[in-house]
Design brief:
mainly alpha; Growth Hormone, Chain: A; two-stranded antiparallel sheet; 20 helices; disordered C terminus
Length: 585
């Protein structure tokens, strides 16, 4: 096998594993909590729930730039191999978690952090290694295949998590392997095998930058600043002071302010140190700047909205169509598959086309198509006809595929070979940080819209079901004041109404009323109209962001390649010179 295909196959496996592990836990959390003996709905455990959901992504996003720069200095293949090994260690530790209960749950958070560190090495170096190994006119195709694994793996993780969550405990003689451990066992053979494969087969083909110093001040200001910002917006989703969310907390706003201040300080530090962690002059290259900014806008637009759509399926649409709440996590992943199908179709194809015609119009058209799909989503009712949703998801996946590979190839082709690790790290950082910020922002938007219309819709639904009097008013207030708990309950595969009714003394409601309130269709019909108001606002914002991203993508200029790669490029005139580090083809 040619070395370039070895690089592509191993980095694609690494990207797939890192991406799958970002979402596999989302669907399987109910099984994990039950196996550990932890109640996720106790207020004291809500922080634990948030960190299990989002901690992996926060850690990965924070470390990408640092690891990309270090890889330029010490060897990209070497650091990638180290990352695969760390990821494998984290996978094994998750499987072997020694305790149960709350302590065991926090151990899982810690081991997920270890996995996230390894995943950051993988994400930071995959695109750089592929760019090093492939000639200029084949990079788009190769990066397209890799991007399918990196982005499509998040959907695969949802389905795989649902399949594994449906398994029973495994009995081997007298030995019993709990179902929740099987979920973490799934990644062990692939991560260990991928590590061995990488150490034996991958080596650095690019020149290592010798004599470079580690930018400790830049690393500290960026790492601490981004961590504070992402943690603060994550804690904004937690209840605070009797409110359903924590945006009024002084700790949340202090974290946001200090985090932003450190990130601003990082920019000044990088212009004054001898060997900066990230060379800001790369932003003078139009393709680099426009590609990264468009990618950031696209990540913010789709990250949180995709999460909200999973909740839409789990909490509303699937129960309305006869699925029990316990089944909805798995089937939500299945019904999201058209998006992955669209991405699989267009990702490699658009990468191949960008090798021949450039990224500018392909990537911009992809973002434009994505913007149109968000507009079409505005016209769907909460109990939509699935073929309409399926078509929109497929087209949206096609749009994402048209953008991802050409945009990545254009970014990586525009920078000097010695800066590819840092460039890859910055690209992945903006994408992952955008996804994390998007989760907090759009979850807040949906909850605000939900809370504004929930009180009236729930009280009317309770009255129609025969629940009246002070107890019904108390139940209505309970649901309306805590939409976060209701949505997370549905997301974790529980019937939210059963959870709320269990808080009342037995006999408070008649058996007939309890049966009506806990029916599959009651909760979706009660919250559906209010939920639709919130998610429609999210769709409108996403449409605007992706439309702006399409315009920014058009501003990247004509096709060009960094001067060191000019010998591999086909002659083709570009309308404008991109910057001091690049030349026209």
């Amino acid at each position: 096998m040619e070395y370039k295909w070895t690089v592509l196959s191993n980095t694609t496996l690494g990207a797939l594993m890192a991406s799958i592990n970002g979402t596999i836990i989302l669907i399987s959390l109910p099984v994990i909590f039950r196996g550990l003996g932890v109640d996720p709905f106790l207020p004291s455990n809500f922080t634990l729930l948030i960190w299990l959901l989002l901690g992996y992504g926060v850690v990965t996003a924070t470390l990408l730039v640092t690891f990309g720069r270090i890889s330029d200095m010490w060897g990209r293949a070497r650091m990638y191999n180290l990352g695969f090994a760390i990821f494998a260690v984290g996978s094994v530790m998750l499987f072997l978690t020694p305790n149960t209960g709350t302590l065991g749950a926090w151990e899982l958070v810690g081991f997920r952090v270890v996995q996230g560190i390894g995943g950051a090495f993988l994400f930071a170096n995959s695109a750089a290694l592929i760019t090093d190994a492939f000639p200029y006119d084949e990079r788009g195709k190769a990066l397209g295949i890799n991007q399918v694994a990196a982005i499509g793996g998040s959907v695969v993780g949802l389905v795989l998590g649902g399949v594994l969550a449906g398994l029973s405990d495994v009995h081997i003689g007298s030995f019993v392997l709990p179902a929740w451990r099987v979920i973490f066992l799934a990644s062990v053979p692939f991560s260990v095998g991928g590590t061995v494969w990488a150490y034996f087969k991958l080596h650095d083909v690019a020149k290592i930058r010798e004599g470079q110093r580690v930018d400790y001040v830049g690393n500290a200001t960026f790492g601490i600043g981004l961590t504070l910002l992402l943690v603060a917006v994550t804690y904004g989703l937690l209840p605070y002071g009797g409110q359903s969310m924590g945006w009024s907390s002084p700790w949340v706003w202090s974290g946001i302010v200090v985090g932003l201040a450190l990130l601003i300080a990082f920019v000044f530090v990088e212009t004054r140190v001898r060997d900066p962690m990230f060379r800001l002059e790369l932003f003078r290259i139009r393709a680099f700047a426009a590609g990264n900014f468009a990618g950031l806008l696209g990540s913010i637009a789709r990250g949180g909205v995709m999460f909200m759509m999973v909740i839409w399926f789990q909490g509303i649409w699937l129960p309305l169509h006869g699925y029990s709440f316990a089944q909805t996590p798995f089937w939500a992943g299945i019904y999201m598959m058209p998006m992955l199908a669209g991405f699989v179709v267009m990702g490699p194809l658009s990468g191949w086309l960008s090798d021949r015609f450039g990224a500018r119009y392909l990537a911009s058209a992809g973002m434009g198509i994505s913007a149109a799909t968000f507009v079409f989503l505005l016209f769907l009712p909460y109990n939509f006809v699935y073929w309409q949703m399926g078509v929109i998801l497929f087209v949206q996946g096609c749009g994402m595929g048209m953008f991802a590979a050409p945009n990545t190839a254009a970014i990586m082709n525009s920078v000097p070979a010695e800066d590819r690790g840092a460039a890859s790290g910055m690209r992945a950082t903006l994408q992952n940080a955008g996804m994390q910020l998007s989760m907090a922002v759009f979850f807040t938007i949906v909850l605000v819209g939900l809370a504004s219309g929930l009180s009236g819709s729930v009280s009317g639904a309770l009255s129609s079901a025969g629940a009246t009097g002070p107890a019904a008013a108390s139940l209505s207030s309970m649901v309306a004041s805590n939409p976060t708990g209701a949505l997370f309950g549905a997301f974790l595969g529980y019937n939210p109404m059963q959870l709320y009714i269990s808080l009342f003394p037995p006999g408070t409601f008649s058996n007939t009323v309890v049966t009506a309130l806990t029916a599959k269709q009651f909760f979706p019909n009660a919250v559906g109209p209010a939920f639709l108001k919130g998610i429609d606002l999210a769709f409108a914002i996403s449409a605007i962001l992706t439309a702006v991203a399409a315009v920014v993508s058009l501003m990247r200029g004509g096709r060009y390649v960094h001067e060191l790669d000019a010998k591999d490029a086909r002659p083709e005139p570009a309308p404008e010179a991109p910057g001091p580090q690049a030349q026209k083809q």
